[in-house]
Amino acid sequence: MQQEVVLAMLAKEPSHGYQLRGRLRQALGPLGDAMNDGQVYVTLTRLEKAGLVESQPAAGLPDRPDRKVYVLTAAGHQRVAGWLSEVSWPRPDLTEFHLKLIAAAAAGLADPLSIVDAQRRELLRRLRDAQRAAMGEPDDSAAGLLLEGIVLRLQADLRWLEACERKWTPRRNRS
Amino acid sequence: MNDAGASVLRARGLRKEYGRGENLVRAVDDVDLDVASGETVAVTGPSGCGKSTLLHLLGGLDRPSGGQLWLAGQRLDQMGERGLARMRRDCVGFVFQAFHLMDELTAVENVELPALLAGRSPRAARRRATALLERVGLGDRARFLPSALSGGQRQRVALARALVSEPAVILADEPTGNLDSQSTLDVLRLFEKLHAAGQTLVIVTHDSRIAATADRLISMRDGAFVDETRLTGGTSGSLGALAGLTGPGEREG
Question: What is the ipTM of this complex?
């Protein structure tokens, strides 16, 4: 489980580990089934060691990880803010981006649409570069084929961003 | 020139509304736009965001509900029907998704038609049309009917026709919407060529490949501009990373 995802899910409010797990389950649906329950606690422990979260034992209960309430530290907040504004490609992790939008919206840290816009700007710049290179190749060029693959992959990502945009656009001005 | 300065197109507070009361739809909602001479601007957005309506307003095909609009230095929003028709003929070249060629006319006859309607002599019109077909790479197809041409070739004929009046701006609405990958690339190359020759272009599209060829990209949602990106400059040296040849800084998974 990626550390930033857990951190961002925690940005909404101090939470128990099982609450975080529930939020991830909800965000991932059937894809979350593959998630090991222990992963969240392993990640939380690492984050605590790194000083990005703090835990408070719940009053009157034994000191076990599943009883603790976890809170972001200032350093944790900073890490989340950095992660939200970072644009990831060419290793696009769809799940990471998806969770980024959900976490940003839940914690009110950033407008998901502005994250989508930033990602689109980056992908379009890359598409422009790849396409210029493709247009410079003769029709029978072998390199042109590789460039076409890159162009198609970027197009697919951009189409998915359109779907993200539709999903996160608040309904207004329209029936 | 005049108060529109060097902008080929200028809009201020441009609006187009349909319906009223509860059913009021703001198809174009308070848009400000400046398109400089020689610039390629792409407008993208989900279907229904108002981008085609905007293009129709910019080309004088439709009248705004409010706001101000200049094309080639002329105030369009206050112009009479006859003036608008003249502006469309002399200053705008339209390119549509469905080509809109006349089926019973050959390629060269389609291209020369607007020049003939504008009162050019048949010889001058034919000369210009022939030169433009050469320019779009279809010199050897001048006598073909549209039905004998591929989709990409038809769109290139439509582009030649749009250029025949030496318009101040080409307005294109989903120009690659009906084309396959190779034909799209041919049309993109042509747009690049026009851009290099200083032609001003405004392209409405949701084809990201076209959008990526623009100098400037405007995203529309619900009739309004929500994001604007300058694509020039860009990410030099990233192509190797895209092909997986150079690592962009490995991260732990």
Answer: 0.72
